[in-house]
Fold this protein.
Amino acid sequence: MGDDEEHFSALFKQHYPDVVRFSARRTDPDQARDIAAETFLVAWRRFPELPDDPGDVLPWLYSVARKTIANQQRGDRRRLRLGARLRASSPAVISSDHAGGVVAALHIRDAMASLSPRDQETLQLVSWDGLDVSAAATVVGCTPRTFAVRLHRARRRLEHALAGGHAGEQAGQASPLSQQGLEMKGARS
């Protein structure tokens, strides 16, 4: 086995679970594995272009995964539009889950859904993927300073969206963000 193959194999073992988790938060679990496989195929094909600094490899992989997901979603949207034109029937009605104990999670989901896709991604990269501002900026292709501004604005929009549905909450009650472990902490640089 050559040095490149050994190095790539080590990168794969180290980062594959992270790329699958990153993708699973943006697609379904089966597609997440396909996205991860495609990401590492791109990484193998572009192996000489991988960052030299080991700390920059995961953000580079996330960036590839993000672009792969975007391509897949564009294809999905095209297929949906075609299916809608071919079907004469009305769309199925989706009922919401009314199980107890998920009100806070549903409120956060709704608040996140009310944000723009860019705000959602910004918050997810930092809060869910655990990236610092610099690494997240690499993923979305902007400067760390620009990303820090995006993050600040996205956090304020999320707080505003959450406050809209919690006007009747009693003081001292835990926020839905803290209940779900999604508190927005200070940006890491």
Remarks:
- Helices lie at 3-24, 29-45, 54-86, 103-114, 117-128, 133-140, 144-164, 176-179.
